[in-house]
Every structure is written in structure tokens, then in C-alpha cells.
Design goal:
By secondary structure, the chain is mainly α. The chain is about 60% helix and about 0% strand. A two-stranded parallel sheet has the order 1-2. It is globular.
Length: about 210
Amino acid sequence: MSSILNPFSLSPGAWVAGYVAKTVALGIWDQAVNAMVIRSGAAKLPTTGKLKGLAQLETLDYVYLGINSIIEYIFMLGIMSYAFTSTNVGRTTEDLKIVNTIPAIYLIFLFDDFFYTPAHLLMHTKALYKYVHKHHHRQNLPFRGYPDAGNEHPVEQVIGMSCVWGALYLTASITGLHAITILVYFGIYAALAMLNHTRYDVTFSW
């Protein structure tokens, strides 16, 4: 169990400090993404006025956000440990190749969607919806960015993180990965989650 919760054998103080650093960095990135969206001039999504959303977070929301933040940190430590030890992950400038960067990022997103789409559909089935995914949809008019994105049942958080882990592992076995690729991927992944839970109509032109 310690290899999962604390793969680097950090002292309790160092473990908590890492958690705080992760939380602060994510908060800064959330604010930066929001500022960039506002500066881009993106219009707010129109609403009918019938949806009120979750204007104020409730106690259970804060409990789940706290639990999910810890789950996210443990997952991050596991990914860092994998990046530092796997032969499929490059760590030097000499290891930086085209194939383990741009195509690799595309494949991670592709495989993550491949895993998460059926899992998401399963959570929407009548038999399971009220037990797990319903909590996330209590907020039907998201505007907070990452707090609304992460406000989900911890079981759903574990499912989502497992899909990402599977996507990373599969991509690493096919194209290889570079540590920088993993870092860039999570930056984009977090930004998209934030954008998907704001009121802004953000579009991309390719």
C-alpha cells in the first residue's frame, strides 16, 4: 500500500508539502486559464434562465473535492514514479523525439477517450447513475472551472484517473513517452477540464 500512497517514501512533512504545492499550482493554472479565456473575448454561453445550477457549494461538495484532491495527488505521485523509472519514458534531451511527443500526446487523448467513453455511458445507466455520476450533474450550469470539474463522486474520480493511467501506459508501450510530454499533456488536460466547466463559449480553429 505504501508503494501506491507514497512511492517516493517521502516523510509525512514532505508528502503534505507536495500535496500543498500541487494544489497551489493547480489553482494558479485554473486562474491563468480563466484569465486567458476572458482576454480572448470569448462570449458567455447563452442560457434560457431555467437552469439555476449549483450557486453555492454544499458540505458534501467540499468533502468530495477534498477527497478527490488527495486521490489526484496520489495518482500524480504514481505517474511521477513511473516517469522516473520506466524504460518507456525518456528523461534527457537526447531522449526527446518527434514520435514520443506530438503523436504521443494525440494517442494519450485518443486512448483516454476510448476508455472513458464507455465508462461514462455506463455511469449514465439507470442502475448506476444515482449512486455515482448524479453528484457531478447536480451542477448543471458550471462556472467555477476546476472546482466544478472536480466536484464528482470519488468513485468517478478513480475511474477517470484509471482511464488516464491506462492511456499513458498504452501510449508509452507503442510510441514511448518523454517526461516533458507527460507534463504538457496534463497541462492541456487540466485546461480542457477547466474550460469545459466555465460559462464561456471557447472554440478552436485548426
